[in-house]
Specification:
The protein is of the alpha+beta class and 412 residues long. It folds into three domains: 101 residues, no CATH class; 137 residues, Rossmann fold, CATH 3.40.50; 100 residues, Double Stranded RNA Binding Domain. The chain contains ten helices and 18 strands. The strands form three sheets. Strands 7-6-5-8-9-10-11-17-18 form a nine-stranded mixed sheet. One of its GO terms (molecular function) is protein-L-isoaspartate (D-aspartate) O-methyltransferase activity. Keywords: Cytoplasm, Methyltransferase, S-adenosyl-L-methionine, Transferase.
């Protein structure tokens, strides 16, 4: 579909796309029609791409109205803020910090919420206000509380909601604390990702209530979890599909530069050389990263690419004690590895990958999460099967990746 066809399609065309995908159901269609997306998208945006996390260059409604309209009515996310509002353009900032979520994701999560008229709902992350408007239309604005940490975003969302005819309780605050004054709630939904379920979200939900949130480990991979809250204050439920959201601000992590791991020395510093049969390409898909991440705690990857198509996969731990590099060269069957520190991070990844393969390469929907007084545990298929990993690496011929000097890299 070209720009002019999307211009003609507008909200109706987007609705047809969403219904064709099964994301927008007939019970949510009246809310979609009552509060169209374009009412809640700012004039300056950075259009994204469905299924990816890349943003196009800035589009300004006043200068490119057709491109703006087409972006709004495409089933793709739209970045609306960079660097917590410190960057405004031109071009793109460093880290996207607010967005209008992909419509498929919006309605898929609302469907998972199983919300009914009269339910009291807490939303974490007001953003542009569109999700709060959809909920307000469905359950009544008097039953919706929405919390936003960014004052500017909250102010703009409150204005858009009022213009649409809705006045839910819009609170400026830290979403990790929920909003006890408005509870207890029948439903809680987060439009930002988390690595730990805030205790307040569970305690402020009625027994039998539901919490829907994007959850992901430090390593990468993320999925929407649907938790049912029990009378004893615990919560458990399955993951219902992959997701990619911006992190709850209170749970953001600060990642150190690779030089911090090398102690100021040139690569490979104190790293121990080895080889691996497992290709770095085999551990980069989103669902695989999720399965690895729930077994390899507090570690994260980063890829350093080279012009010839080869790359180095870096692994680092959050404690800044351990690191690993794995060199990928196209056409090779085994790859050079260096590991430093008390943890052997690549060995942990290999073990996690072998565990995943040994259980039939389970997709997101086979995993679940339990939250209780002991913390939280990811499980496979049933709550009595907590995730753990085993595995080994097989030897074989090695490809070596030549390195340019100096080996200490400038990228984080």
């Amino acid at each position: 579909m070209n720009v002019h066809e999307e211009m003609a399609a507008g909200p109706e065309g987007l609705a047809a796309v969403l219904m064709g995908k099964g994301a927008l159901t007939s019970d949510w269609l009246p809310s979609y029609e009552a509060v169209p997306r374009h009412w809640f998208v700012p004039d300056v945006i950075w259009p994204g791409r469905g299924g990816g996390n890349r943003q196009d260059d800035r589009v300004m409604r006043g200068e490119e109205p057709e491109a703006w309209w087409a972006a709004v009515h495409r089933d793709a996310p739209i970045t609306t803020q960079w660097d917590d509002g410190e960057y405004t353009g031109p071009g793109k900032g460093r880290i996207p910090s607010s967005s209008s979520s992909m419509p498929t994701m919006v309605f898929s999560m609302l469907d998972a919420l199983s919300v009914e008229k009269g339910h009291r709902v807490l939303e974490i992350g007001t953003g542009t206000g569109w999700n709060a408007a959809l909920l307000s239309h469905r359950v009544g604005a008097e039953n919706v509380v929405t919390v936003e940490v960014d004052e500017g975003s909250a102010r703009d969302a409150r204005r858009r909601l009022a213009e649409a005819g809705f006045e839910p309780l819009a609170v400026v605050g830290d979403g990790v604390e929920g909003y006890a004054e408005g509870g207890p709630y029948d439903r809680v939904i987060a439009t930002c990702s988390i690595g730990r379920v805030p205790r307040a979200w569970v305690t402020q939900t009625k027994p039998g209530g539901i919490v829907v949130a994007p959850w992901g480990p430090v390593y990468g991979g993320e999925a929407v979890v649907r938790l049912s809250v029990a009378g004893d204050g615990t919560a458990a439920g399955r993951f219902v599909g992959s997701s990619a959201f911006m992190r709850l601000r209170a749970q953001r992590s600060v990642r150190k530069h690779v030089r911090e791991y090398l102690g100021g020395c040139d690569w490979p510093a104190d790293g121990v050389r080895g080889t691996t049969f497992l290709s770095p390409d085999a551990v980069g898909e989103w669902e695989v990263m999720f399965a690895i991440g729930v077994q390899v705690p507090n570690a994260f990857p980063w890829m350093e690419s080279y012009e010839d198509g080869s790359y180095t996969l870096w692994l680092r731990d959050m404690a800044v004690t351990s690191w690993a590099t794995v060199d990928y060269v196209p056409g090779c069957v085994e790859f050079e590895v260096y590991q430093g520190g008390p943890r052997r991070l690549w060995d942990e990844v290999v073990a996690a990958h072998r565990w995943w393969e040994g259980r039939g390469r389970p997709g997101i929907e086979r995993f679940g999460l339990t939250v209780d007084g002991d913390g939280e545990r990811v499980w496979l298929d049933s709550a009595d099967r907590p995730v753990c990993g085993t595995g080994s690496v097989m030897p074989g011929p090695t490809c070596h990746l030549p390195r340019a000097e100096p080996p200490c890299r400038d990228k984080p």
